[in-house]
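Exercise: predict the fold of this chain.
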Amino acid sequence: MYYMLLIIKNNFLFYIKNYDILMDIQTVETSSSYGWIIAIVIFIILLIIIIVLIFFFFPFTTLPGPGTVGLRGSCNTTANCQAGLTCSGGICLANIGSACTTVADCVPGATGCVNSVCVSQPLSGIGGPPPCMSGLVVDNGVCKVPIGGRCTQLSDCVSTASGCVNNTCVRITNGLNSTCNSSTPCSSGFTCDNGLCKISNMSPIACMNNSQCVSGSVCNNGTCMFTSSNHCHSCSSSDSSSSSSSSNTSSNNKSSSNNKSSYTSWKKGNSTYKTDYFKNKMKKH
């Protein structure tokens, strides 16, 4: 830009100094007053060109007025920002306690945007009140792990999750307590139990209470498993059957023994009867 203006200036001075010579070369005979008019016109044209170039390369910017810039608008000082905002890094940001949409709307030092307000409380982990640590989201007023996040049990996950599978919060189509039948089976890790999908025995899906497990199993340290009493319930039936069978056998043996004793008594009685009969008959003869 500087060199361009310098060239224009030198050309203009050269033209003025050598005007008479140029006029002679062109063999144009003019009066001195007419020559000055031409020089003035040329000067005005050059001035206009210079002004246009200045506006083109150095545009004037309008400074914002006091209190006119809204959230995340450009600013020079805090005075440019609206009430409740602070100019930080050339951007108007919300102060602690001011309205926001995300934590990015808040001034540095804010830990979160809770209930649409910038806050600076310490960050909470799973199950704590907002604001939450990185990787967690607010679910029903509590910090929870989103779908796809790392978990240790289902209670760590957001309410829309239906399982904590391989330490990951997942949303299963036919998961816990979903309606099921022969044509609509449960997803892997679940068993259709009385028309509802329940967590299968020893399933990798974490449980929170016994009601989530398939019938006959309990939730033990986050895993549905059969208890020894439930698992051996058939054993008791078997033992009962064996006892009943033994009792019946004993009864039958006793009955058989009684029958044998009766038969022996009958046989002895019959023999005695026969002996007495022959003795009486011999006396008569």
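Check your answer against the key: The first strand starts at residue 85 and ends at 88.
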